[in-house]
Design goal:
This protein is an alpha+beta fold. The chain has one domain. The chain has eight helices and 13 strands. A six-stranded mixed beta sheet has the order 5-4-3-9-10-13. α4 crosses α5. The longest helix has 14 residues. The N terminus is likely disordered.
Length: 302
């Protein structure tokens, strides 16, 4: 069965100012307050259109892999970086997510061009201690690993624009989705911006954010402790990326790769939309399996 999800993917015109802008890196767009200053910024005045996803059991099954909190790597991360102290005083999963998200956000300043020497969480944190700055995907790798170390299953979620195949750059963003056991749901967390979207007081996953923005954008808010994170700027900035969603099948923290070709992935595609085969004109999407099923994509971790 297919169910129309009342959401819209904002696909707009590129705004150029004076013809002198540069484009952003392959997986990152500019800071929300600067989003209109770069080529690749999407005009949020474009009309959204409804999307449809398959609903109900699809019969699909995928071998998602997660590390358990007692894993030696996660134990080392938890101990070396004092993660228990970071979440001290919080009594629920949402509170722990909030504290860890803010902690990761503060590890370095964003750089949309710099690539790390190694892409596991401990190596990234060590490079950051030496002054390195990284992209959205590195924030997400560290956030997912830190949450996993505290017993909150998490995965790096790739977000892609509707025109991700044909745009030359700025067609993707990386966030995290965390499984909150006490809420029994996946929740989106953006480590680069220290933001989780909420509506009606409840945290949202990425597809729920799409749905909420299309139904009543005024009802969507952000949970953040970052002083420079503006609600309107962020929601306008993130909306164009909420068109395709992909996650690694292997979510063990030292197996995560910043390159979307680097690991097998599952991509959620709207019914009727094209299955993208290339990213930003240049990079073939290898090892990607496509699904149209929300239930499959948002299955509880086992």
């Amino acid at each position: 069965m297919q169910t129309s999800v009342d959401v819209g993917c904002i696909v707009g015109r590129i705004e150029r100012k004076g013809g002198a802008e540069r484009e952003v890196g392959s997986s990152v767009a500019a800071k929300p307050s600067r989003a209109r200053e770069v080529e690749g910024a999407v005009d949020a005045r474009a009309e959204p259109f409804p999307l449809t996803f398959a609903d109900g059991a699809s019969g699909e099954s995928y071998p998602f892999r997660h590390r358990l909190p007692g894993d030696p790597y996660l134990t080392r991360l938890r101990s070396e970086y004092g993660l228990d102290g970071v979440v001290a005083g919080t009594s629920d999963d949402e509170g722990r997510l909030r504290m860890i998200r803010a902690w990761v956000h503060g590890r370095w300043q964003h750089d949309g061009w710099n690539e790390p020497e190694r892409s596991d969480a401990i190596s990234l944190l060590r490079e950051a201690e030496r002054g390195a700055r990284f992209r959205c995907v590195e924030y997400s790798i560290v956030l997912a690993a830190a949450l996993s170390a505290l017993g909150i299953p998490a995965r790096v979620l790739g977000l892609r624009t509707q025109d991700a195949e044909t745009r030359e750059s700025g067609a993707g963003h990386a966030v995290v989705e965390a499984w909150l056991p006490d809420r029994h749901t996946w929740v989106m967390a953006d480590g680069q911006w220290d933001i989780t979207p909420v509506a009606g007081g409840a945290p949202l996953n990425a597809v729920e954010l799409r749905q909420a923005l299309a139904r009543d954008a005024a009802a969507v808010d952000i949970d953040t402790s970052a002083s420079d994170a503006g609600r309107n700027d962020y929601l306008e900035w993130i909306a164009p990326y909420l068109c395709y969603f992909d996650v690694p099948l292997d979510n063990r923290c030292d197996a995560l790769q910043p390159d979307p070709q680097g690991t097998e992935r599952l991509m959620l595609v709207p019914v009727g939309a094209k299955e993208p085969r290339v990213f930003q004109r240049r990079w073939p999407l290898r090892g990607v399996t496509f699904t149209r099923s929300l239930q499959t994509f948002y299955a509880a971790p086992v």
